[in-house]
Amino acid sequence: MLNNVTLLCFFASYLCALALETTRLWVKSGVIRWAAIGFAAAGFVAHMAYLFARAGATDLPPLLSSTHDWLLVLAFLAVVMYLFVSVLDRSLGFGLFLLPVVVLLVAASRFVDQATNARLSAERGWGMLHASMWVLGAAGVVAGLVLSVMYLVQHRRLRQKRLLQDGLELPSLERLSRLNWWAIVISVPLLTLGMATGVGLSLVEDPAGETVRLTEPNILISVLSWVAMMALFVWLLVARRTPGKLVAWRTVWAFGFLLLTLIVLEVFSQGGVHGVTRRQGSGIRDQGSGKSGQDSVHRIPHSAFRIPPSYFA
Amino acid sequence: MNVQVVYCNHQTADLSVREKLAFASEDDLLRAYDVLRERFPASEHVVISTCNRVELYTAQEEPGEAPSTQELATFFSEFHRLPVETFLGDLLERTGMEAVRHLFEVACSIDSMVLGESQIVSQVKTAYETAAKGNANGPLTNALFQRALTVSRRVRTETRLSEGRISIASVAVGEFGRSIFDRFNDKTVLVIGAGEMAEETLRYLQTEGVGQIVVVNRTSENSQRLADQFGGESRAWDELDGALARADVVISTTGADRPIVDAARFRRIRKTGPGSPVFILDLGAPRDFAPDVAEVDEGVFLYDIDDLERTCERNRAARTTEIARARAIVEEETARFMHDIYHKATGPIVQRLREQWHDVSRQELEILFRKLPDLSADDQQAIGRSVERIVNKLLHPPLETLRDEARKGTPHGLIDAVKRLFHLH
Q1: Regarding the domain with residue range B2-161, which homologous superfamily does it belong to in the CATH classification?
Q2: Which CATH superfamily is B168-317 part of?
Q3: Is B51 a catalytic residue?
Q4: Is B163 in a helix, a strand, or coil?
Q5: Which among A155, A161, A245 is the nearest to B307, CB-wise?
Q6: What pLDDT digit, counting tens, does each position of A108-163 carry?
Q7: What is the mean pLDDT of chain B?
Q8: Which chain B residues have a beta carbon less than 8 Å from that of A27?
Q9: Radius of gyration of the CA atoms of chain B, in A
């Protein structure tokens, strides 16, 4: 039965969980909390089954498969975070901040390339290192972003002397600040390592005989967001005074920029940060053309996962 | 069962009266129970004695054995060596269902000075345990007080009567302080002035495990006294700026007639410190910190007495809206308790009456069937069912009346009448 799982299944589950979490702002009920957790858990199971099915079909781990799978792994990690925190703390309004990111990632995954990346699968060891560093770093980015937004909401409440709102209980500024610091300090090195291995991989000639040009706009934008994060990282480590609100704002800007860049580039550009792959694989998009892209990229037929093309129409 | 309560509380009597009638210690209460047992041996007793109320509950199987209000007032008078006329006008009495409802309202803190406060539950529980220790309770008060604690739990679970903090100190620390800091045991608390509010807030912070306490006051004796009381250190008034720069939490209650810290001064002070978040509770009236101190930087969280009082008021108002729901639960539980109790009282009579009448009908049927041996088994069964229906129909009115009366209280008179009329012994 789990082989019939579609993207819509867990997208809808996460959307329901988000709606229920939002309801908790007005209605205080343990039933609603558990219903939200239940929907998220159901989505989590479907999500896992979907990733397994994809991995089985491509004979590749999701991280090495395609941008589509990679985004879903990131969303999967975010859901694990949500479930863990929500089960442990019944009053925390964590879902309101994290679930929108999950929904965004799952929705974005629908519009990005589902073709396998030949370069990553060819250099399997390095590819795995590159993709896992990126996904773990990106999970840290998501955590940092969510924590920073929570910090700003809590800070605003305290400055405006407003009461705690039911369903929107947040950790103290001190704790949010500490967790955010760790999110930055852990994710930036991981992303740097991911980026370095990515650059290394791109310098290696790919199976189709073409190499990535480092002057590609997509690569440049990615480098720019990395520089912004690195600046945040260094500032955080060396600055004598790091007011919490400033840290939160800078994190939101740097991490938000990185996350948006990552998603927007993948959705709207030709292959995002792996643009050359898509460029090579442009013939794959054009299945009828019968061009030689099939040597470098293996297209996975939609029907293998029963994803109707009009899911998000 | 017969229950009554004689009481005075914060609504009916001044503190001067309540404190005279109160039982200050457990020993006092145990002595009181000895006296009560001796004077009213057929009664069970439980006394709830707190700063807001003195209530004496008594319960007996028979109503004739209940002590009168006058007798209980005499007990109070003799025990506390007070003339009866000094407090008699402040004493109220409730009996039966009213007394049960009153106890349930007390246990749910509907009747408390601070609506929804949680302390009363443990006070009711302690009162009941002390009565047990003094051998003053019994099956009736056991049932009553156990049900009161159950009702209290139900009200707390099903309503929001106890939600939201309503004292300045608890709002300051619980609603705001804990949202700024994760813990207080590594924080420095600076107390400016040595007012009562500072003391109360410090007491609250102490339960949170506050780290270092520094007290600065114009009068060094007062600051030393407060510092000694809470294990802190006292500093001279001219060290205030240095102490402010290092403090994480500032509690100010100086009673000065104008702000002692303005934005310019505080900005200078902040520059000399680590710039970490500072939580300032300005409990002075007039204020000790100028309002624009809050704008010095984003790490300053300044709350004055009005901000905190507004929060308390909102929480109080939120609790008030829950009173109706709490009362509905109390009403339902009171009716259920009374029903359970009266059912216990009338149950045996009803059962004996039914058994007696059915025994008579069975005996008569046996005689009839012996006289008419030609009757088939089906005919015998049909006659048997008819007679049973007749008996039930004849029994229905008196039993219905008994049940109706039982809803208002144990119908001792009616029970006696039924016993005598039908020779039920």
Answers
A1: Glutamyl-tRNA reductase, N-terminal domain (3.30.460.30)
A2: NAD(P)-binding Rossmann-like Domain (3.40.50.720)
A3: yes
A4: coil
A5: A161
A6: 888 877 776 666 666 677 777 887 888 888 888 888 889 999 999 999 989 888 87
A7: 87
A8: none
A9: 33
